[in-house]
Amino acid sequence: MIQRRDFLKTTAAAASALALPNIARGQGAKLLRFVPQANLSSLDAVAGTQYVVRNAAFLIWDTLYGVDSQLTPKPQMCEGHTVDAELKTWTFKLRPGLKFHDGERVTSKDVVASLNRWMVRDTMGQIIKTRLDALEALDDLTFRFRLNQPFAKMLFALGKNNAPVAFIMPERIAKTDPFKLINEYVGSGPMRFRQDQWVPGAEAVFERFADYSLRQEPGDWLAGGKKMYFDRIEWKIMPDAATAGAALQSGEVDWWETPIADLVPLLKKNKNIAVDIADPFGNIGALRMNHLHPPFNDVRARKALLMGLDQQDYMQAVVGDNPDLWKKLPSYFTPGTPFYTEEGGDLLKGPRNYDGAKKLLAEAGLLGSKVTLVVATDVGITKAQGDVTADLLKRIGFEVDFVATDWGTVGARRAKKEPPSQGGWNIFHTWHAGADCVNPAPYTALDAGGDKAWFGWPKSDEVQADILKWYAAPDAAGEKAAMAAINKASFENVTYAPTGFFLLYQAWRNNLSGVVKAPFPVFWGVQKS
Amino acid sequence: MFAYIVRRIVATIPVVAIVALFIFSLLYFAPGDPAAIIAGDQASPADVERIRASLGLDRPFVIRFAEWSWQVLHGDLGVSIFTNLPVTKMIGQRIEPTVSLMLLTLLLAISTAVPLGVLAAWKQGTWIDRLVMMIAVSGFSVPVFVVGYILAYVFALSLDWFPVQGYTPFAITAPWPWLRNLILPAMALGLAFVALIARITRATMLEVLSQDYIRTARAKGVGQRPILFLHALKNAAVPIVTIIGIGFAGLIGGAVVTESVFAIPGVGRLVVDAILRRDYPIIQGVVLMLSFVYVLVNLGVDLLYTLFDPRIRY
Q1: What does the alpha-carbon distance between residue A404 and residue A397 come to, in Å, rounded to a whole number?
Q2: Phi and psi of A317, rounded to 5°?
Q3: How many other C-beta atoms lie within 10 A of the C-beta of residue B29?
Q4: Whole-angstrom distance, CA of residue A49 vs CA of residue B40
């Protein structure tokens, strides 16, 4: 029988437990609970280019070189390198004592296998591959590239943060077909992936790698010492933004990578939460046209669209009224970076010219043409851009076929080269991380190689020639000139239509310190009190 | 009876086979491409094409369906396109939270709705009846996710009684953390179910209470409580059990939303994520499993009829 006293004791204990703030029930300063931007559904950052996968991979795998916050590549797994005067023979030496999470030593053989896999998938890697005579392991710690043409951007290629990243994995894993996902996640990075605790779509767990070989320099993005203050990092996948926001407010999670703009004012009011810009390089909105089919196979239609396109409309639809979060972008490149240029971007400057656009379309005989606009309505940024584009197209005299669908469908449909009437498309929206748009190397969307270019298949020999000039540029002045030429030629061709530059927030509990702005979450150096 | 159960279980085979063919065809013809999602936004069209080929997604429908059917017949639901994990393992990881949520919801809903329905019938036309019916109408009208947000705001964020999200596995020695995580989701999911059962209970009870044998029982001096719960409710049970069985499908649908709102790592979220990514083996596996469970639930309901109505024999 339940005694009155026992009942009261039990009830009081339960009530005390209920009254405890959630934060007090946490597991202490060695555990970080992080809400990533998206579901971590796979973990191969070479076979795939999803940002969320790359971000997780930075914890597990290390790179030979790593860019710092100035995008300057610094030695990471490598002790250093030598290169001949012609920039054709690059010899690298690994730091001794590097170990994989399975306890095996990192050797040159692992590096060669990893780079061979990476070169198949990465744009810069593919350029190296076309110039490659040999990539060889000279001894356990030394490896060498022998090229038949100079390649000045080698260190940037090996250390860049853009996917696919040149991650180093054990040879047996790196031998996997680059078009197949690996299923063993062994790296030499600061955290070990607990594959046995992975619940895809719900939680991914990383534990500190005790044998990680830390560099002595201070950590700066992917360069320097990646000092981890956490024994365990739990990625909590939360598909619902309101839930993630509530969990951050109640202290059930510590850090939310991408709070939606609608919730930011609420989070800012909470004294326990810090909100700041996530990535100083921001993002570039993109209106992608199909160059294979009418009306956008005619450059006049593409230019007419630029004449009417008001980036303010797009950016306000994407990030709201806060003018600190966006700016107009008469350029294809990331503003605020050393080689930023507005050369040729005049069509996006000044008042919008709807009449001029209509006139141009009339000249081309395209006024009233039907445009199939495929919009992923399940992704806020693409949905907002799609709505503005539908209005713009009508204003300048197109008939709009608005196809509202999900991102999975857009992903498949944009690959179709058939005419829109046969399941193809005319326009879709996306956006590019600003860090991918600082130069042409990681900038897939800028490629204008026709059939081999990114979706939309723009073709411009001039753009392609200018990109090659950038690769060959011997110094900063040469790079700057090449980028100005690329920008101008891209606007001449209207490779795609930039819809503006925008920034996104990140939010974290105030008991975290050391959170930095970067194109990816930097976990090293972050502490929890 | 035993022969009946065996017959019914055997009859599930063609049902599940038709569901399998239907869902496979639906996914095959539906737009979307897991290769494009794996490759990521920056991948080139050629890369996407190569990944599609490496996944075998470029092969004809018949070959893919035959392969998958053969696997299923051997108890293998395939491997996730994205995680490379067996679908059975992924379902296994997610089944406990979903079963826990549904059982708690059922318990909560039945234990609340049946007494409410009986009360409403007994007090027909009074303010109690109207109050119960108002709750029932509200329960139907407000979507699960709205109820979920309101509950999370009040009981988790404002009062800090319960967590906002997550799931703690059940432990017999310490069930409270498990229960604490599930109370709000079960309330959110159960509200519509409470409304449904309460309305049916009331309607059926009203019909039963107007029958002659109830009047006779009253005339013989049987008390109100035995009349309601012993004589009337037992006879009203068949439609109530039926509606609980039918409502089970709604519960599955609601669990998908509830698991997303409360970030519970259940089967519902697994299948929604899989649909968004076009992870075909997972979608097929989960739908197949759920259709089988649904058929079994209906069998269970049919068998329960014999408990409440001795005239029913199989």
Answers
A1: 21
A2: -70, -30
A3: 8
A4: 4
Both tokens of A353, joined, read 């010219």
Residue B295 is assigned to a structural domain of this protein: yes
Overall number of domains in chain B = 1
Q: State the number of CA atoms in the 13 A half-sphere of A515 facing the CB.
A: 24
A196 touches chain B (CB under 8 A): no
Residues B261, A240: C-beta atoms closer than 8 Å: yes
A292 touches B: beta carbon within 8 Å: no
Question: How far apart (Å, rounded) are the C-alpha atoms in residues A38 and A407?
Answer: 13
Say if residues A390 and A403 touch (Cβ distance below 8 Å).
no
Which ipTM did the prediction report? 0.84
In the DSSP assignment, the letter for residue B50 is: H
pLDDT, one tens digit per residue, over A25-50 is 445 789 999 999 988 888 999 988 88
**Beta carbons of B230 and B239 less than 8 angstroms apart:** no
Q: Do B33 and A21 touch (CB under 8 A)?
A: no
A499: enclosing H helix or E strand: strand A497-502
Please give the average per-residue pLDDT across A107-121, as a whole number: 97
For residue A422, give both structure tokens.
């046969």
How far apart, in Å, are the Cα atoms of A346 and each of A42, A144, A491?
42, 46, 9
Closest-CA residue to B209 (of B126, B309, B121, B308): B121
Can you give the residue range of the structural domain that contains B307? 88-313
The CA distance from A347 to A337, in Å, is 22
B236 located within any domain: yes
Q: Which residues pair with A67 in a beta bridge?
A: A73
Pairwise CB contact (< 8 Å): B90 & A200: yes
Q: What is the 3-state secondary structure (H, E, C) of A114-179?
A: HHHHHHHHCHHHHHHHHCEEEEEECCCCEEEEEECCCCCCHHHHHHCCCCCCCEECCHHHHCCCCC
Q: How far apart are CA B42 and CA A442, in angstroms?
A: 9
Contact B37 A50 (CB under 8 A): yes
| C-alpha span between B145 and A246 (Å, rounded) | 14
A246 and B156 within 8 Å at the Cβ level: the answer is yes
* Alpha-carbon gap: A199 to the closest alpha carbon of chain B (Å): 7
Q: Does A23 touch chain B (CB under 8 A)?
A: no
Residue B75 lies in a domain: no
Contact B43 A444 (CB under 8 A): yes
Asked whether A452 and B46 are in contact (CB, 8 A), the reply is yes
- Give domain status of residue B54, yes or no: no
Mean pLDDT by 10 residues, chain B (314 residues): 82 86 88 82 81 87 91 91 92 95 94 94 94 90 93 95 95 94 96 93 94 92 89 88 84 90 94 90 93 86 83 75
Question: Amino acid identity, residue B54?
Answer: S
What does the alpha-carbon distance between residue A192 and residue A101 come to, in Å, rounded to a whole number?
6
Q: How far apart are CA B162 and CA B188, in angstroms?
A: 13
Q: 3-state SS of A20-82? A: CCHHHHCCCCCEEEEECCCCCCCCCCCCCCCHHHHHHHHHHCEECEEECCCCCEEECCEEEEE
| DSSP labels, A459-471 | B-HHHHHHHHHHH
Residue pair B248/B294 in contact by the 8 Å Cβ criterion: yes
Give the integer Cα–Cα distance in Å for B275 and B257: 14
Contacts of B160 in chain A (CB under 8 A): 18-19, 21-22, 250
Beta-carbon contacts of residue A351 (< 8 Å; ≥ 6 apart)? none
* A273: helix, strand or coil: strand
Task: Specify the pTM.
Answer: 0.87
User: The domain spanning residue B299 has which CATH number?
Assistant: 1.10.3720.10
Separation of alpha carbons B15 and B62, rounded Å: 20
Residue of B83, B159, B168 to mutate, interface with A, max A Cβ within 10 Å: B83
- Residue B189, helix vs strand vs coil: helix
